[in-house]
Amino acid sequence: MLAPPVPIADPVRRRRITLAVALILLISAALRLWQVATPAEYMFDEVYYAKDAKAIVDGRVGPTAPLRWEPGAEVSWPHPEMGKFAIAAGILLFGDRAFGWRFPAVIAGLVMLACVYPLARRLGLPPPWALIALAFAAADTLGIAQSRIATLDVFVGVWSVLCILLALRHVQDGRHVRWLVLCAAAGGMAAATKWSGGLALIAAAVLIFIAWLRDRAPATDAAAAPAHLLGDVPSARPAFVRALPGALRVVALFILIPAALYVLSYVQYFASGHTFADWWELQRQAEYFSLHLKATHTYASPAFTWIVDYRPVWYYFVGGTTYRGVITIGNPFLWWTATLGLIAAPILAILRRTTLLLPAAIIVVVLYVPWFATSRTSFMYYMTPVAPFLAILAAAALLTFAGKASLPRRGVLVMAATALATAVLWDPIGRVAAWVFWHLPQRVGPAFGWVGVGVGIFLALLVVIVVVAPRSRGWRPLVSMVVAGAIVGIAVAFLPIVLNIPISPGHWSHIMWFPSWI
Questions:
Q1: pLDDT-based confidence at residue 429 (cuts at 50, 70, 90)
Q2: Which of 380, 306, 311, 333 is nearest to 493 (CA)?
Q3: CA torsion, points 388, 513, 344, 206, in degrees to nearest 10?
Q4: pLDDT at 289
Q5: What is the pTM assigned to this prediction?
Q6: Residue 464's pLDDT is what?
Q7: For a 10 Å CB count at each end of the chain, is N or C smaller?
Q8: Cα angle for residues 248, 252, 253 (degrees, 5° grid)
Q9: How many CA atoms lie within 13 A of 247 on its CB side?
Q10: How far, CA to CA in Å, does 24 sit from each of 18, 218, 275?
């Protein structure tokens, strides 16, 4: 586990992979930039962060009576300044308008997406499946929505992803200190955007510890022990003693560099006349706010429901003869597949000693599960830093099911055809299902509806039994390609309510699959 990725030896294949990555990123950039300035007014929490970024640009962050610790005109003071600095940079470049507020989020979202392929490779996926993980991340509607709004979560996401990628480079490319320093710096930038960004540093530390455990076994023999672990220390000493200097170095860097960047995020705060006592009181107030916020909100939801897409958040909505809206919602097929992969990861590791799913699953757990302990008002878009790893986990799950590192013959064609069919046929299939399970029972009788549900459950169980049967191994790779295509294709159904495209009320009702989505 966490072994370095094997480079692609064939230059032709390498160029094809590079072109495919570039094409996915180009399409993703077009989606993120398409009419990104609409609506032209503030959406959702832009009313805080975009306004505060303008206050930063104007220098209106100095002390004011009676609360000297408050950063002037800023109202989002519970969060550090790095993310607001990024939004302010967009305002400086393009003016105090929607494009200026949101352009930095577009760049952050694209950088985060560009990290998915190398992350997938370093987490154990072969090149074609790492490319599928990138396609999944590109088709994740939450990632698209978060890249088109001037809020902080996409900046937490990009720095978190970079932090973990750099941690993997450190443990897989010779443990050079420069990667460790850059890892700590990226984690510090995440924490200097939102306190929750500190989870990236914990995830990075966990990966470094796992790599140490991986290398510990050969270190018991002096002749076989890696030089970077033994150094000049006698091999008779316990492994943890030999590793202690390196561990202390990691701890020191992971504390000092993030702390320095966190304080640096308040450089304008101090330059505007605030004292250290003001800053300390600001941190105390921010801690109280972060731990005890109890405000009710229509779209707040418990953390354990986020991964199953239970309660998306509507950022913007206008009704009438046509509907326009912007929703942050995870790609349901992708997130549900990743959820199954998360459940399967420890089971497969114990029963079959299959660890392919474990690295991505561990990262998801470290970044996501701590939210379970919070009692404050929380929202599903806090999953932004987790979402890229859900894409990798889903790809790893399909690879494990397929049982082959290479794609099946015509696998790309099957995936593309399924994606196209899903994109085109999701609506008529949904209409048929609604007629069978909703409208027809109202005409015939309630019992008919239960009969339909029973038939549906039976068919679903039959499909599961056939799919997991030993005789199905020959065509599991193609089934994996069909599922992968459906994950990519279903994103088309939700693009109108992510990109603020006018749609009919009927179209809108057909993509609101559950009452909790409204």
A1: confident
A2: 333
A3: 30
A4: 84
A5: 0.90
A6: 64
A7: C
A8: 120
A9: 12
A10: 10, 41, 48
| Helix, strand, coil abundance in the chain, percent, nearest 5 | 70, 5, 30
- What is the SS3 assignment for 490? helix
Are 154 and 107 in contact, with CB atoms under 8 Å apart?
A: no
What's the distance, Cα to Cα, between the start and end of the chain in Å?
A: 42
How is residue 6 annotated by DSSP?
P
Q: What distance in Å separates the CA atoms of residue 400 and residue 411, rounded to the nearest whole number?
A: 16
Secondary structure in 3-state letters for 13-72: HHHHHHHHHHHHHHHHHHHHHCCCCCCCCCCCCHHHHHHHHHHHHHCCCCCCCCCCCCCC
Angle at the Cα of 268 (from 101 to 94), degrees rounded to 5?
25
Beta bridge partners of 271: none
Query: Residues 167, 250: contact at Cβ < 8 Å?
Result: no
Using alpha carbons, select from 210, 208, 151, 152 the residue that is nearest to residue 183.
208
What's the whole-number mean pLDDT along residues 315-336? 94
How far apart CA 460 and CA 482 sit, in angstroms, is 16
Helix (H, G, I), strand (E, B) or coil at 315: strand
Could you tell me if residue 9 is inside a domain? no
pLDDT at 506: 85
Core vs surface per residue 282-297: b (16+ CB within 10 A) or e: beeebeeeeeeeeeee
Cα separation of 281 and 286, whole Å? Answer: 8
Omega within 30 of 0 (cis) for the link into 66: yes
**Total domains in the fold of the chain:** 1
Give the model confidence (pLDDT) of 32-42 as tens digits.
Answer: 999 999 999 99
Give the tens place of pLDDT for each residue, 374-406. 888 899 999 999 999 999 999 999 999 988 888
Cα–Cα nearest to 388, from 194, 153, 101, 224: 153
Report pLDDT for 468: 63
Domain presence at residue 301: yes
**Phi and psi at residue 234, in whole multiples of 5°?**
-60, 140
> What are the tens digits of pLDDT across the range 468-507?
667 767 788 998 999 999 999 999 999 999 999 999 988 8
Which tokens sit at 460? 């679903």
Residue 361 to residue 330: CA distance in whole angstroms: 18
Q: Is residue 1 part of a domain?
A: no
User: What is the share, in percent, of the chain residues with pLDDT greater than 70?
Assistant: 87
- DSSP code for 7: P
Domain range for 144:
15-517
For the chain, the C-alpha Rg in angstroms (whole number) is 25
- Asked if residue 7 is part of any domain, the answer here is no
Mean pLDDT along residues 177-201: 96
The chain-wide mean pLDDT, for the chain, equals 88
The number of beta carbons lying within 10 Å of the beta carbon of residue 264 is 15
